[in-house]
Design goal:
Radius of gyration: 17 Å
Distance between the termini: 38 Å
Number of strands: 7
CATH class: Alpha Beta
Strand order of the largest sheet: 3-2-1-4-5-6-7
Number of domains: 1
């Protein structure tokens, strides 16, 4: 058992991909994981459900509480957090992983998609975090970790997909706000973002198919980076925008070749990063 043994993490959108990788990483340390996601039944293009994810989490060494729910709705989030506290006795870590993506330009983007991104990404992060805060405040080393980018105001990231940028930067602004608002309670709020694109269903289905996957790293790089962040003293490490490879370098991990989805392939830098 590791340093997160017995801790409880509440994570959104962990049926697959990055969220599931993070959940399995902390589970291997002996942590409890409550995961809220909409996927209750198998999807033809998306592997995994909240229940299969729970099985993988428990196989990794943790205890899992799968919750079918939609973070766009107050009552569902409040019920999920309540169930987590009743089941595990508290919440030590809140991870905002759920996110919707559509990189269409302003004229082509349906307003329904704009609303979806705002409601899941920005509002969902705000809602999940604020609902967890009263319980995080009772933890000895509480963390809020959000999968969102550093605030880069290079116009290129606005002109290409301003709606998505607004939604993701809203998540990042939550990090800045929470870090300062809840500092007196010892609650850390940080963001984590990958240097390269990550091999997920979203990349496969929406962002370039097999070629994009070939130029990606596996979700485990973010899981390993998240683990290192969540071990830090919450009172001394807050308000940061971490990049996965920089986090790993800080603990002596510099050979990242094992994270490549395809060995020796040229990697593609993720959006919102200039270099």
């Amino acid at each position: 058992m590791g340093v997160l043994a017995g801790k409880t993490m509440f994570i959104s959108g962990a049926s697959r991909g990055i969220g599931l990788a993070i959940a399995k990483k902390v589970a291997a340390d002996g942590a409890n994981v409550a995961l809220i996601a909409k996927t209750s039944d198998p999807h033809p293009r998306l592997p995994g459900t909240v229940y299969t994810a729970a099985e993988e989490i428990e196989a990794a060494g943790g205890q899992a509480l799968p919750i079918v729910g939609d973070i766009r709705f107050n009552d569902q989030v409040e019920e999920a957090v309540g169930r987590t506290v009743d089941h595990f006795g508290g919440i030590d870590i809140c991870v905002n992983n759920a996110s919707a993506i559509n990189l269409s330009g302003s004229v082509d983007l349906p307003m329904k998609q704009y609303d979806l991104m705002q409601n899941i990404n920005c509002r969902g992060t705000f809602l999940v975090s604020r609902t967890c805060v009263p319980f995080l405040a009772k933890s000895k080393n509480p963390h809020i970790l959000t999968l969102s980018p550093p605030l880069n105001f290079n116009p290129v990231w606005f002109q290409r997909h301003v709606a998505y940028t607004i939604a993701k930067y809203g998540m990042s602004m939550c990090t800045i706000g929470f870090a300062n608002e809840f500092a007196a309670s010892g609650i850390a709020a940080n963001s984590l973002w990958p240097r390269t694109i990550i091999a997920t269903a979203a990349v496969q289905n929406l962002l370039g198919g097999d070629e994009a996957m070939r130029r990606s790293r596996r979700p485990e790089i973010l899981a390993d980076a998240a683990y290192e962040i969540l071990k830090l003293d919450s009172r001394e490490n807050t308000g940061n925008f971490y990049i996965d490879d920089e986090v790993l370098a800080s603990v002596g991990v510099t050979d990242l070749s094992g994270y490549s989805y395809v060995e020796d392939a040229e990697l593609q830098r993720d959006i919102f990063l200039d270099e």
